[in-house]
Structures are given as structure tokens and as C-alpha cells.
Amino acid sequence: MRLATKLRNVFYSMPVVAAGEAAGLRIFSRGADPDFARGTYEFPIQEAIVSLLEPGNVFYDVGANIGFFSLIAARRVGSHGQVYAYEPVPRNAAAIRRSRDVNRLSTIQVFAEAVGAVTGDAELLLARHLGGATLANVSTPPDVNGRLSVRTTTLDDSIARYGLRPPTLVKIDVEGAEIDVLRGMTAALTAYRPKVICEVDAATKSGLDHKAREIIGFLATAGYAVSSLPAAYANDGWQVEHIVAQPMPT
Fold first, then answer.
1. Whose CA is closest to 151, among 61, 86, 88?
2. CA 105, 109, 115, 121 torsion: positive or negative?
């Protein structure tokens, strides 16, 4: 019975994604949003990632959660592409590695680090919701469930330190630290001109608009044109918006 239970737990924690751009892939999703396994999670972002990437491209998944978008990107860029997934929550980073391995997507490289404006150390506030952890100097999750010390890096430092391939597309979902991530990748924005998908969220519409204006202003100064993606949520409670930025011709 114990063996049967263990096998059943493994099976149900690694379901085959039912629909969407990750359909047919297995994902380690135990305890995560069930929409990951259904394949319906943030469908406009799934479509944007596939449309903005080509085989051989390089995808940076900043705030990768359990790696749903990393799997989609790895399938899209193929064996000659590369995916770098940044996720500071140890449980989530381990889930990405498990999904990578079971799907034989060896182009995914996982960094168990938080990304921001500086390289060093910081306190991460964990949340009961697996994707809700935040850096303590940014915000406090409403469902705090612990804390731990994590390494932080900027994308510019990470690219230089590890000799990473230049980004084609960067997806940012970091629970309030978006502007810090952008400030820490100014060299990459200037040198490589990657496309950027960024989630912006807040408790109120006015709070969302304030964050979005700051991010859009920063990207505009860097020579990017910004547009909104179709809504991924009803926004009848917590407010969420996704923007895509593309470099303007020089």
C-alpha cells in the first residue's frame, strides 16, 4: 500500500498538461495553481511567448514559479535555443528541474536566485500561494508563510558572470520588483535589445496604473514601444496587467 500510494502521488504530481502551448508536456505541479496542469494559465502570455520566439532564440524567465513558461519556451526555441529560469523559492526551483528532466528539455538552466537592481543577499518572504513570494524590501504577501535569505543578482551581472547567451525575450513576473529587474538589465537592454513581457499587479486600479506608468516610462527612455496584452484575468479583485515592450528602430 505504501508503494502504491507513493506511485500514485508521483503520477498525480507530474500530470500531462491538457491544453495550450504546453499541451503534452509533464509538469511538476503539486500544490500549484491547477490551471498549470490544465494548460489554461495566463493564456495570452503563452501565445505571446510563442509568437515572439523563434527556434534558436534565448528566453529569460525571471520569476519562473514552477517553470510553466520555461517549458513552453524550451519547446519553442528547440535544441539550438536556450532558456534561463530564475526562481528563488527552493521548492519551485526544484520543480522546474524535475519538469525539465522528465521532458528531456536540457536547454533549461535554473538559477535559484532572485533578480533585482543589485547583486548580493536579501530576505525573501514566502507565501502560501507558490507564486506569491516577495523580497522583503519590495512588499509583504498577504499570506506570509515564512522567510529565508536568498542570493540576488542583476541580469547584467548574471550574463557577465556565467557567460550566458544574450536574451531574445525576457519575461518578468516578480511580485512588485519589476522596475528593479529592469534597472538591473540596462546594459542588456542597450546591447541586445531583447523583447520584454512584464506582469504588473496591485490591489487597486490606481496602484496598478502608478506601477505601469513607471515601468512604461523607463522602457520608453530605453527606446522601447510598449503595448498591453489581452487580459489574462477578470480583474474583479486584485488588478493584473501584462505589457509587452519591443525595441523601436534606431
1. 88
2. positive
What string of H, E and C letters represents the secondary structure of the chain?
CHHHHHHHHHHHHCCECCCHHHCCCECCCCCCCHHHHHCCCCHHHHHHHHHHCCCCCEEEEECCCCCHHHHHHHHHHCCCCEEEEECCCHHHHHHHHHHHHHHCCCCEEEECCEECCCCEEEEEEEECCCCCCEECCCCCCCCEEEEEEEEEECHHHHHHHHCCCCCCEEEECCCCCHHHHHHCCHHHHHHHCCEEEEEEEECCHHHHHHHHHHHHHHHHHCCEEEEECCCCCCCCCCEEEEEEEEECCC
Q: How far is CA 134 from CA 15, 59, 129, 235, in A?
A: 28, 22, 11, 21
Task: Tell me the pLDDT band of 139, cut-offs 50, 70 and 90.
Answer: low
Q: Average of pLDDT values for 208-229?
A: 96
Q: pLDDT band at residue 143, thresholds of 50, 70 and 90?
A: low
At residue 241, what are phi and psi to the nearest 5 degrees?
Answer: -140, 145
Q: Which amino acid is at 174?
A: V
pLDDT band at 48 (very low <50, low <70, confident <90, very high): very high
Measured CA to CA, the distance from residue 222 to residue 125 in angstroms comes to 31
User: Phi and psi of 161, rounded to 5°?
Assistant: -70, -45
Q: Are 126 and 148 in contact (CB under 8 A)?
A: yes
* 109: pLDDT strictly greater than 90: yes
Contacting residues for 231 by C-beta, under 8 A, at least 6 apart: 44, 240, 241
How many C-beta neighbours within 10 Å does residue 126 have? 20
